[in-house]
Every structure is written in structure tokens, then in C-alpha cells.
Amino acid sequence: MKTLTRMTPKQVNRWFMLALAPFIGASLCIWLLSEPPRLELDTSAYVPDSGLSEETGHIVQGLDQAALTVDKTIASIEKTGRLYQQTTAAMSSILKDTTAQAEVPERVYNRRITAKLGVPTERVSSDRINIELFKVNPGSYHGYAMKVKLNDPNAMAMSLGNDTGKSGSTETTLQAVTRHGAVAGINAGGYADGNGGRHPLSTTFIDGKYVTGFQPSFKDLAFVGLNQSGQLIGGKFWSQEQLDQLDPKFGATFVPVLIKNGKKTPIPEKWKTAPARAPRTVIANYKDDQLLIIVTEGYDEKGKSGATLQELQNKLYNLGVKDAYNLDGGGSSSLILNGRVVNKPSDGRLRPVPTHFLFFK
């Protein structure tokens, strides 16, 4: 080996580098493991695309505006929802108060009616109909009054015949009530015997048609029935157009009209005496469209029992009805309620007739 003194400076440097190399490598590894290198990028030379930067800025700005709009919309919807709930509650309260106030005159008017009729002996009540039964006992005659409020126009109907399809077929009011499932019923229009049966008298309307065609009023006959809205209609009609204008739902014919528009109408002389007294069935309406039916008792048709038409006319007038019509009477008079015969038919049993007015619960 050459001595250091005999080496050139260049050779000495090489020798030291070779001798120290292992130590320098180990130190470098230790430094790298103890402190990771930090990389720094010089971005001063990078210049972004100005067009892309502006477009991105617009997009960001648009998104910010959209987010602001969404926030405002959500706040508006929430405010509208709260306002809707408050308005709905207020309107419900107003409607409730208005309904209650509107019902006050109706209740007052109904109390006035009931006060004149007395205390009801029987009631039927449902969503469709309200029925109250009263006794009528003024002294010279007695019977029953049935006040009916139709909450549903379809809670009243008319039956024709006995469902056999035979012309002139009949049935008692109780049979009609039972067959149709009604809660109450009365006899309706008059009839004429002939051709082996009892046929409805004059104009009779049911199921959207005239049974034997329209017949102009004659000999004091009057039509009475219900229109499609559940209101009592009736009177004398000289043309079909007159009756059609009232939109009839059903109806039958008898005689005479007792009260029209709150005024008494002249009673034909014949009907004042033939017979003078008799079992009677009359139907009337109040100005609020409630119905009133009166059926009077009588043990025969000889004019010695029952009520006169003048007496019933006065009674109905004092009760404050708007219109009133006499229906078939005598042995035909019948009143059925809750499955039983209320009155005492003068024949000693119910008489089969062609038409009946029925009431449904």
C-alpha cells in the first residue's frame, strides 16, 4: 500500500471518499427515515386558461344563486303551508259557526211547528229521514199527524200495483211497506174499478213516465207528488208541459186542493157533503219543505164519523202549511209506521189500492 505522503492530493481525496462512503450512506438512510422529504412546486410559471376560469366562475356563481333560490323557495313553501293550515282552520271554524247560525232559524221554525202539533208519541230518525208521530184530537174528530223531514229525496217513493205486472193490480199499504222495506207508508191517489181491477185515477207518474199518459185536470181533480229535489208539488195542470216543468219524480191524482201558497182554496160543493164526514188522508208541506200527513179515523163512510174537508182545511191552515192536498179517503185511508197499522181502517181491515206513498229509513 502506498503511504499518504507518497500519494498525490487527488489520490488522497479518492481514498477518503472510499473510506467514508459506508458511513455517509448509513447517515443518509437515517435522515430520510427520520424526516420525509418535502417537495415544493414552483407554480409561479403556471398560468391557467383565462376562458376556463371565467366559465367555472359563472358556474359556481350560478350554483350559489340556485342554492339561494332553493332556500327561498323552501322557506316560501313552509310559510305557505303554515298559512294554508291557519286559513283552513279559520275557514272550518267560520263554516261551523255559519252552519250553526243557519240552523238556528230552522230549529226555531221547527219548534213553532211542533208546538202546534203537541208532543210526539213516536219518532224515527236517520241520516235520510226524520219522522215524528202526533195524535190529532180536536174534539169533533181524531186521528194522527205524521211530520216528515226528508234529508234525502230518495227517502220517499211511490209504489204502483203489487209488482205482478198485471194492470189494475193492488195491495194494502202494509203490504207495500213490507215489500219495499219502507219504515212508513200511506195510501195515495184515487182509483177507478173496472176491467177486473182497480186502476189509478187520471194522471199518474212513476219511474220517469206517465202510466196511462198525461190527462188534463178535470172535475176538480189535482195531481200531487214529489219532484226530483224532494219537494212536494201539485195542483191542476192543463198541459203536460206545465207538469214537466216541475220535474216530477212521482205522483198520483185525487181531489181537492185544500191550500195553495198559504191560502185556502174553495172546496167543491159536492165534496162538502158526499160524504160530509169521513176517514181522510191529506198531505201538506211547510215552507221549509217538511211534509205533514194527517189521517183521521172514522168507523164508516156514511158521513157520521171522521172529519169534514173544511175542518181539515182549517186545521192545516192554523198549522201554517204552505200547500195541502186531499188524498183518497174512506176505507182507503191508512197509516203504517214501524211495521204496524196506526189508524183503524173503516172497513175493519186495510183496503187494497193501486198507489201508496212510502218513506224509507
From TrEMBL:
Transferase in keyword set: no
Superkingdom to which the source organism belongs: Bacteria
Pfam families, per database record: NAGPA
UniProt feature coiled coil, ranges: none
InterPro entries listed in its UniProt record: NAGPA
Phosphodiester glycosidase domain ranges (all copies): 180-360
TM spans (from-to): 12-33
Keywords, comma-separated and alphabetical: Membrane, Transmembrane, Transmembrane helix
Listed name of the protein: Phosphodiester glycosidase domain-containing protein
